């Protein structure tokens, strides 16, 4: 897999390029946001590793521009560890968020997890069995167009937020275990994805403007609340 590494620190980039090469990736390293966008216009990358502290353009802005340009998975790799930055990055369309310093095994696992997602963007479950439109109380989810409305108003979600909502909406009222959600939406069983799930749940609740719709079942997982229950 060709992997685009956007990193301006020479030492960090050199070490990461060596590790990625040993694990079967073909890394292409660029130093700036503009170089990254130019490289992506040529296509052919499986994953983008995006540092946020770039010399020319803030990494958040670069992520937004990448998402308008291509659907290539983006993993933000940064020293910004606060939850607000995580949520902002995911809202811009990042597929994952890794905080420096990180374990290389963790980073490799996350790369494999997001790359498996590129095999298909459809929500988990049988496409033939699932209806085209899911309606749960005030929430309407159109699977084919990936459109979501709450009380008749359009809600714009990232890809992972949509897949998460679509999974819960297919069986409203049923509790989905955290492990099951991670397996179905992120296509991985790796436990480290749990924090990413929590961030996506928080972001989804905020965007739906009805946080009570996505219920936490302590010690188990999450469910989409049925009206009146």
UniProtKB/TrEMBL annotation:
What GO cellular-component annotations does this UniProt entry give? cytosol; protein-DNA complex
SMART domains, per the entry:
REC, Trans_reg_C
One GO BP annotation is: regulation of DNA-templated transcription
**A Pfam cross-reference name:** Response_reg
Question: Which InterPro entries does the protein's record reference?
Answer: CheY-like_superfamily (IPR011006), OmpR/PhoB-type_DNA-bd (IPR001867), Sig_transdc_resp-reg_C-effctor (IPR016032), Sig_transdc_resp-reg_receiver (IPR001789), WalR-like (IPR039420), WH-like_DNA-bd_sf (IPR036388)
> From the UniProt annotation, which stretches of this protein bind DNA?
131-226
Q: The OmpR/PhoB-type domain covers which part of the protein?
A: 131-226
Modified-residue entries (4-aspartylphosphate), positions: 51
Coiled-coil boundaries: none
Q: What GO molecular functions are on record for this protein? A: phosphorelay response regulator activity; transcription cis-regulatory region binding
Q: Which residues cross the membrane?
A: none
Supply the name of the protein. Answer: Sensory transduction protein RegX3
Organism source for this protein? Streptomyces mimosae
């Amino acid at each position: 897999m060709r992997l685009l590494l956007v990193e301006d620190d020479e030492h960090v980039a050199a070490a990461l390029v060596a590790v990625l090469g040993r694990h079967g990736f073909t890394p292409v390293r660029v130093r700036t946001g503009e170089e990254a966008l130019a490289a992506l216009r040529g296509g052919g990358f499986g994953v983008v590793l995006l540092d946020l502290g770039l010399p020319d353009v803030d990494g958040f802005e670069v992520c937004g521009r990448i998402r308008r340009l291509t659907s290539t998975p983006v993993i933000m790799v940064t020293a910004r560890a606060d939850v607000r930055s995580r949520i902002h990055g995911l809202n811009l369309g990042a597929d994952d968020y890794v905080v420096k310093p990180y374990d290389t095994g963790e980073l490799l696992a996350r790369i494999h997890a997001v790359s498996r997602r590129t095999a298909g963007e459809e929500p988990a479950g049988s496409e033939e069995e699932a209806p085209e439109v899911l309606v749960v109380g005030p929430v309407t989810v159109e699977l084919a167009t990936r459109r979501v409305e709450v009380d008749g108003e359009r809600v714009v979600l990232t890809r992972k937020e949509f897949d998460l909502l679509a999974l819960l909406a297919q069986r409203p009222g049923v509790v989905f275990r955290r492990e099951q959600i991670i397996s179905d939406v992120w296509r991985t069983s790796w436990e480290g994805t749990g924090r990413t799930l929590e961030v996506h749940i928080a972001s989804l609740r905020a965007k739906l403007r009805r946080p009570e719709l996505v219920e936490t079942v302590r010690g188990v997982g999450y469910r989409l609340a049925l009206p009146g229950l």
